[in-house]
Amino acid sequence: MYNISMSIVTYNNEKIIENTINSIVSNIKNGISYIIYVVDNASTDGTVEKIRCLEGNIRIIENKKNVGFGAGHNTVIDLLDSNYHIIINPDISVIDSAIEDMFKYCENNVDIGLLSPLIKYPDGEIQYLCKHNPTFIDLFIRLVLPGLFKKRQNYFTMRETGYNKIFEIEYATGCFMFFRTEVFKKIKGFDENIFLYLEDADITRRVNQVSKSIFYTNAAVIHEWQRGAHKSLKLMWINVKSAAYYFKKWGFRLY
Length: 255
What we know:
Elements: E1 2-10, H1 17-27, E2 34-41, H2 47-52, E3 58-63, H3 69-74, E4 82-88, E5 92-94, H4 98-107, E6 112-120, H5 136-144, H6 150-156, E7 167-168, E8 176-180, H7 181-186, H8 199-210, E9 212-223, H9 233-250
Parallel strand pairs: 1-2, 1-4, 2-3, 6-9
Antiparallel strand pairs: 4-8, 5-9, 6-8, 7-9
């Protein structure tokens, strides 16, 4: 059994995947055993070839088509033999002892099913990604009017906490999710009806039905955040469909 397993879902990430994997491998120390599953969703660039040249305990799984974020990560569920499983975006850089610190914290707090670290921009600024469960108004503002209604956006992203203490969260960001593996398996991973967007809101709610989701400010990772839904009509439509499914599943809340 590994101490930690990880999965990274890739799709045409040739330019960034090397940095992500190297940052993980170089910062896992002190005898922590690990395996990295890279699930490639039918990339058409050199992503897979680049990964094959990297060092570390890496296993590549090649899907024949782009099955989406959640379904991609679910590919490895039956393979997992670990104490903890981490969901990692291909635009993440692990720094210092972040993984070791989260590992130790969860070892000492057995009631935690999901741990979310502090997420930072490359310049060190905080990304405010802890959220309350989304309402229609919250999603509409973030998708259509991101420059307005700052008071409401600050509430949604829990800015009042200061992000300088440990607290429970309703909605953890999917860019880096540190699961207790038994909890990840118990809830059967991500809801594959969601291709992209809000799969993290959904899975956090399901974790909170059986365990606890915690924001852990004492460990940080770097996230090269790409707000794709604001740049592409296709991604915006995917976002809208995900929201419709989410509200059908969990109940519609306007505000």
